[in-house]
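User:
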Amino acid sequence: MKNVALHNLGCKVNSYEIDVMQQMLQEKGYNIVPFDEVADIYIVNTCTVTNIADRKSRQMLHRAKQKNPNAVVVAVGCYVQTGKKAVEEDACIDLAIGNNRKKDMVSILEEYLEQRDKNFCDKTLHDTSVIDINNTYEYEEMTLRQTAEHTRAYIKIQDGCNQFCSYCVIPFARGRVRSRRAEDIIKEIKGIVAAGYQEIVLTGIHISSYGIDFEERRDYSGNSKLLDLVEQIHAIEGLSRIRLGSLEPRIVTEETAKRLAALPKICPHFHLSLQSGCDETLKRMNRHYTTGEYFQSVENLRKVFDYPAITTDVIVGFPGETEAEFAETKEFLEKIFFYEMHIFKYSKRAGTRAAAMQSQVPDQTKTLRSKELLAMEKRQSREFRSRYLGKTVEVLLEESREIGRKRYFIGHTKDYVKVGVPVLEGKAVPASNKIVKITAVDFLTDDILLGEL
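Assistant: Predicted structure:
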C-alpha cells in the first residue's frame, strides 16, 4: 500500500476535481496522508490564474520532492496546460497530467509506476512524462461521492470558458465551454444527499454558459439552460440548500431573479464578477457588460430577495487604469455596496492581449490602490454583518473550533455569513451538519458573528 499526499491550489473546480481524484485513489487501495508527511506519491493540483499561482504551484511541487527525493511527484491541471516547457524542464516533476485527463489520473499513475519500476536500473537522467495536455471538446465526466467537507459539496456542472477576457489565461488552460449532462448532475447530487450532505454549490469555470454547447442553444436570458438545471435540482428530496458559483452579470435578468426567488432552497448569496467599476476599463478588459447593466442585475436581485449577499472580484492596476478611472471604480463600489469583495492586483500573463497593452501600471501604484479597496471591503463587510445583530436566522453548523480558549460550533447562514455558537457546559452540544436557529448577539471576530441558540 503506497502513501499518497494531495495538495490543491486555486478555484472550487479544482477542489471538486481533487476530491474526486482522492476518492479514486482510496477506491484503488492507496493510503491518503497529509501533504506535510513523507509519502510515496505527491499530487499537486495546480493553478495558473496569476503569476503568484504559478509560483505557488512550483513551490508545492518542489517542497514535495524535498520532503522525499525518491517520491513520485505528479503535477496536474492548469499550470501543466499553460507551462509545458517549464514543466518538462523541472527536475522536481516526474509526471504531468493535463486538465482533460484528470479522470484517468489513477490509471496513468499506475502505468507510470509500472514503467518506472521496469526501467529503474537504466534511468540516469530525469525525464518528465507529460500526458496529453490538448484541450478537448467534450465534458470529462467525473463523479463525486464524498468530500473533505462533511456538510457542503461542490458540484461541477461545466468546464471551459468562451469569454476570452483580455487579461485571462484560463480559456487557454481549460479550453472552450463543455457542459455536463443534466441527468449525470442530478444523479451525482442525489448520491451526495443520500450520503448526508445538506448543501451543494454549483461550480464551473463559467457556469452562466452552462448548456450553450448543447444542440438547443440558449442565450443569456431568463430561459437559460442553467435556470432549467437549477429548477430540476431544487426538486431533489432531502436537499436543503443550493448555492450558485460565480455568475455572469448579464444572466441576472428580471426574469432570472424571479425564477430564483421562487425556489426556497436557493441561497440568497450571489457572486457577480465585476473586475472594474469603470466602463472604459471594462472595454479594455473585454468584459461584456457596462456598469449600468451590472447595477441593474444587482437591482433585479434586490427587488425579489430580502437584502441578498452580493459578492464580487475587482482587479486594480489594469493596463491604462488612470487615477480618474480608479476613482470611478471606487465610486461604483460604494454605490453597489458589497458583502465581500476579492481584490486582486493585475497580473501580467504571457499570451494574453493585456500583456501587450501600453501604459502598464507600476506595482507600487497597484499596491496603494489595493490597500484602499481592501479597507473599503472591510468596512462594507462589517456593516453588512451588523444588520444581523438582534435577528434570528438559520445556520448550517459545520465544524467545531476553539476561539479565544473557548469552543464554538461554526456555521453559515444561507447568505454565507459565518456564525459561531458557543458550546456551554451542562447544555446540549450542537451537532455538525445540523441546521439550527440562532440569534446574532455580537461579533465573535471581525468576520464571525456570535450566535445564541
